[in-house]
UniProtKB/TrEMBL annotation, chain A:
InterPro entries, per the entry: Gclm (IPR032963), NAD(P)_OxRdtase_dom_sf (IPR036812), NADP_OxRdtase_dom (IPR023210)
Pfam families: Aldo_ket_red
Coiled coil: none
Organism of derivation: Trichechus manatus latirostris
Ranges for domain NADP-dependent oxidoreductase: 80-218
Gene: GCLM
Biological processes per GO annotation: glutathione biosynthetic process; response to oxidative stress
Similarity comment: family membership: Belongs to the aldo/keto reductase family. Glutamate--cysteine ligase light chain subfamily.
Name of the molecule in the record: Glutamate--cysteine ligase regulatory subunit
Key word Acetylation present: yes
Pathway where this protein functions: Sulfur metabolism; glutathione biosynthesis; glutathione from L-cysteine and L-glutamate: step 1/2
Record GO cellular component, one term: glutamate-cysteine ligase complex
UniProtKB/TrEMBL annotation, chain B:
Reported function: Catalyzes the ATP-dependent ligation of L-glutamate and L-cysteine and participates in the first and rate-limiting step in glutathione biosynthesis.
Organism taxonomic ancestry: Eukaryota, Metazoa, Chordata, Craniata, Vertebrata
Domain of life where this protein originates: Eukaryota
Annotated protein name in UniProt: Glutamate--cysteine ligase
SUPFAM superfamilies hit by this protein: Glutamine synthetase/guanido kinase
EC number of the protein: 6.3.2.2
Keywords: ATP-binding, Glutathione biosynthesis, Ligase, Nucleotide-binding
Family that this chain belongs to: Belongs to the glutamate--cysteine ligase type 3 family.
Functional pathway: Sulfur metabolism; glutathione biosynthesis; glutathione from L-cysteine and L-glutamate: step 1/2
One record GO biological process: glutathione biosynthetic process
Organism whose genome encodes this protein: Trichechus manatus latirostris
Statement: the UniProt record of this protein carries the keyword Ligase: yes
Catalytically driven reaction(s): L-cysteine + L-glutamate + ATP = gamma-L-glutamyl-L-cysteine + ADP + phosphate + H(+)
One GO cellular component term: glutamate-cysteine ligase complex
Length: 280, 637
């Protein structure tokens, strides 16, 4: 099923010739994707994401009429509906809904709000229990500082205050960065993710700081760049040859997971991605 | 090991007279439970491990190590100081078969959050410390699966001579009755198994033929006709329940959210049993000899084989009802979930009357045949005071039969009137030398259950192939040499099996290419183009869970151990023990483990367990430093 909607969510009756946004909701279902091909070389998360993008685009493009792609509304929402699993409200309490947001392009901070709103609507929930923001991309050689994080963090704080998110956290901050954020922030980070590779060799200053201010240190195994512009375009081109993939830049990517809290079971997991047409 | 009732135990002849009564009421008790709790759902994950320990005493002067027959006293003190003083005490202790054994479990079950995986090892350390603190000088608690000189002259402290005459429990040439736990259940079990069988149990383990081992290897038992007849050339002969039940093992039990999840996990894990058993191999020595097997399973199986000659198919059926193909202690004989049905290719002996009765009570065929299969067995112990029970509120008769069916997996209905849910027990593992290893195996299995449920994995293959795997798994060095039947595509058929038992797959015949022979390395670590590997799948699961760094570090080290044991980079305990013996200056390449060799080995095991020496070939080199620094910071608890 294809839904065409503008950003307000009301169905459009007329399609515009030049779309400016593309939303992808990617659902890997909760099956383990055996990636024999790549075994050890590519990070499994990167591979999983690429497989998801391609699978979703392929399924979606096979369902729609070719005209639609050529006519292009301003927002394309690619959804493979059978894969969507909204959370049953009766079971909401038993679930922990978490998300990690990856900012891909250099863009406005409203991405954060869009991403969280979209995750809530996809999952049919009023709030997310936790959102972690991956460090935004910065130019090579530049050290991540508080200023880079601030615009996104302010958005997250707003979302906490408006009860869209319960707890917010960071990823890959060292002790200094975490301390700076902590001191400045109104809503304090509740967790900071560190790379799996360092979980047995934690810097003592970070551990001590986190303990003192009750910040949970969690682990992740995401590569530095989970989704590059080029790999996104490649996947897009392959699935929808007519789309002129090089014009499209991914803005953000959100990975969510729904965990059955008391049973340690992953109920569902997926990605949502938003891309924009360059120059629009 | 099962239900402990106090009272006056009945002889086999008396017990036999009540067998139908016990079965009849056992089924009624099961039905009460089933009807009361069949719809229980949304139970949370709770789980716990069970570690069995041996009490040993070192005689440093004479270079000798013995098993200390003080389990009952040690247990009494542990319980007195522990659970009876404080209901929240972190450890629980239970008796085990040997008078030199005790069993320890965490005081409260672990829950469903990831950080609990990080408390397992600390709790095991506490147990070891607690038990050790009660021992005399030169004594230790050891987690070894089989004591190498079990059944050798003077293997116990105090020493006892076996008394192979009728009137005792074992009638063994080697294993004195004093080495059996003093609780009447254990000696009654021993005696009644022997009486029911009509002769002593027979255990023949192939001997490892070393350079100077006599060939053929024959032990003469001129004084004992029974032994002379039963012992086989080139085998180590044993004749008592204690040779099996006197071994230690490592078990995990978990609570499922519903009966259907329990049945699903029961089936899925049954296929994993031989794999994890081979990975945990730790028992290469029996009665002072080096054997050609690495795992205890077959030994225990034979040690409690109560089947008569008729039941074993050696004589035409006259006094018995069935031919029975396996011991009470063996691998499971039927899958329980609907998706397992088409893989049930083992001829199942059942009590037809019970089966019909269960069907009439609305129980489905798969569960009915499972129970009707367990109930082909006779009760082995019965206490005079416990014959007439309230079937609606007690379950002793059901448990009597259930708990003397010692299979690779156990499907456990909730006890009557309790808040416990449906549980499944995973029973094939051998106990490891250290708390680190034991934690690693336990955490691996529990994580695997979470992964199976999250990704809806399907490991099922025909059950007869699982049985073949069980045989392979016990062989020497099976972890590296063995090839095991395993399902190729584990991500397929698993859809929605958990709720409502799933749909029976309609295809009548199973495509032979659904499973193939794999090495343990392939199954655990994966192989490009062949199989994704259980550890990579576990890692994928872990990446989606919120795991704190401490816990993740522990899990990382646990999975590293499993991974390296599977690939051969690290040795199994069995392999390591073999090498230790081979390199011992006293060893004469004749497959004989002398008192002195045994002393050196157990002393070394104890040093490793207490972190007094390193053993990188067994445990890896990197973990200890990390663990050490962590345990230092954790020394407050």
């Amino acid at each position: 099923m294809v839904q065409i909607s503008n950003s307000g969510g009301t169905p459009r009756t007329t399609a515009l010739r030049h779309p400016s946004e593309l939303e992808l909701k990617l659902f890997p279902e909760t099956t383990f994707q055996p990636n024999h091909r790549q075994a050890h070389k590519i990070n499994s998360n990167t591979q999983e994401l690429r497989d998801c993008i391609q699978k979703t685009l392929n399924e979606w493009s096979a369902q729609i009429s070719p005209e639609l792609v050529r006519e292009f509304p301003d927002v394309l929402e690619c959804t493979v509906s059978h894969a969507i699993e909204k959370i049953n409200p009766d079971e909401r309490e038993e679930m922990k809904v978490s998300a990690k947001l990856f900012i891909v392009g250099s863009n406005s901070s409203s991405s954060t709000r869009n991403a969280v709103d979209m995750a809530c609507s996809v999952l049919g929930v009023a709030h997310l229990d936790s959102v972690i923001i991956a460090s935004p991309p910065i130019e090579d050689g530049v050290h991540l500082s508080l200023e880079h994080l601030q615009p996104y963090w302010e958005e997250l704080e707003y979302l906490v205050q408006s009860k869209k998110i319960v707890a917010i956290g960071t990823s890959d901050l060292d002790k200094t960065q975490l301390e700076q954020l902590y001191q400045w922030a109104q809503v304090k980070p509740n967790s900071n993710q560190v790379n799996l590779a360092s979980c047995c060799v934690m810097p003592p200053d970070l551990t001590a700081f986190a303990k003192q201010f009750d910040i949970q240190l969690l682990t992740h195994n995401d590569p530095k760049e989970l989704l590059s512009e080029a790999s996104f375009q490649e996947a897009l081109q392959e699935s929808i040859p007519d789309i002129q993939a090089h014009e499209w830049v991914p803005l953000w990517l959100l990975r969510y997971s729904v965990i059955v809290k008391s049973r340690g079971i992953i109920k569902s997991k997926g990605y949502i991605l938003q891309a924009k047409r360059r120059g629009s | 090991m099962g239900l402990l009732s106090q009272g006056s135990p009945l002889s086999w002849e008396e017990t036999k007279r009540h067998a139908d009564h016990v079965r009849r009421h056992g089924i009624l008790q099961f039905l009460h439970i089933y009807h009361a709790v069949k719809d229980r759902h949304k139970d949370v994950l709770k789980w716990g491990d069970e570690v069995e320990y041996m009490l040993v005493s070192f005689d440093h002067e004479n270079k000798k190590v013995q098993l200390v027959l003080s389990g009952e006293e040690v247990l009494e003190t542990l319980q007195e100081k522990g659970e009876r003083t404080n209901p929240n005490h972190p450890t629980l202790w239970r008796p085990e078969y040997g008078s030199y054994m005790i069993e320890g479990t965490p005081g409260q079950p672990y829950g469903g959050t990831m950080s609990e995986f990080n408390t397992v090892e600390d709790n095991m350390r506490k147990r070891r410390k607690e038990a050790t603190s009660l021992l005399e000088e030169n004594q230790a608690v050891c987690t070894i699966t089989s004591f190498p000189r079990l059944g050798c002259p003077g293997f116990t402290l105090p020493e006892y001579k076996p008394n192979p005459v009728e009137g005792g429990a074992s009638k063994s040439l080697f294993f004195p009755d004093e080495a059996i736990n003093k609780h009447p259940r254990f000696s009654t079990l021993t005696r009644n198994i022997r009486h029911r069988r009509g002769e002593k149990v027979v255990i023949n383990v192939p001997i490892f033929k070393d350079k100077n081992t006599p060939s053929p290897f024959i032990e003469a038992f001129p004084e004992d006709d029974e032994a002379a007849r039963a012992s086989k050339p080139d085998h180590i002969y044993m004749d008592a329940m204690g040779f099996g039940m006197g071994n230690c093992c490592l078990q995990v039990t978990f609570q499922a959210c519903s009966i259907s999840e329990a049945r699903y996990l029961y089936d899925q894990l049954a296929t994993i049993c031989p794999i994890v058993m081979a990975l945990s191999a730790a028992s290469p020595f029996y009665r002072g000899y080096v054997s050609d097997i690495d795992c205890r399973w077959g030994v225990i199986s034979a040690s409690v084989d109560d089947r008569t000659r008729e039941e074993r198919g050696l004589e035409p059926l006259k006094n018995n009802n069935y031919r029975i193909s396996k011991s009470r202690y063996d691998s499971i004989d039927s899958y329980l979930s609907e998706c397992g049905e088409k893989y049930n290719d083992i001829n199942l002996t059942i009590d037809k009357e019970i089966y019909e009765q269960l069907l009439q009570e609305g129980i489905d065929r798969l569960l009915a045949q499972h129970v009707a299969h367990l109930f082909i067995r006779d009760p082995l112990t019965l206490f005079e005071e416990k014959i007439h029970l309230d079937d609606a509120n007690e379950s002793d008769h059901f448990e009597n039969i259930q708990s003397t069916n010692w299979q690779t997996m156990r499907f456990k209905p909730p006890p009557p009137n309790s808040d416990i849910g449906w549980r499944v027990e995973f029973r094939p593992m051998e106990v490891q030398l250290t708390d680190f290893e034991n934690s690693a195996y336990v955490v691996f299995v529990v994580l695997l259950t979470r992964v199976i449920l999250s990704y809806k994995l399907d490991f099922l293959i025909p059950l007869s192939k699982v049985d073949e795997n069980m045989k392979v798994a016990q062989k020497r060095d099976a972890v590296l040499q063995g090839m095991f039947y395993f399902r190729k595509d584990i991500c397929k058929g698993g859809n929605a099996m958990v709720d409502g038992y799933g749909k029976a797959q309609n295809s009548a015949e199973l495509a032979p290419e659904e499973y193939t022979l794999m090495s343990i390395d392939t199954i655990i670590n994966g192989k490009e183009g062949v199989f994704p590997g259980l550890i990579p799948i576990l890692n994928s699961y872990l990446e989606n869970m919120e795991v704190d760094v401490d816990t993740r570090c522990s899990i990382l080290n646990y999975l590293k151990l499993i991974k390296k044991r599977a690939s051969g980079e690290l040795m199994t305990v069995a392999r390591w023990m073999r090498e230790f013996i081979t390199n011992h200056p006293d060893y004469k390449q004749d497959s004989v483990i002398t008192d002195k060799i045994n002393y050196s080995l157990i002393l070394k095991c104890n040093q490793i367990a207490n972190e007094l020496c390193e053993c990188p070939e067994l445990l890896g080199s990197s973990f200890r430093k990390v663990k050490y620094s962590r345990s230092k910071t954790d020394s407050s608890n």
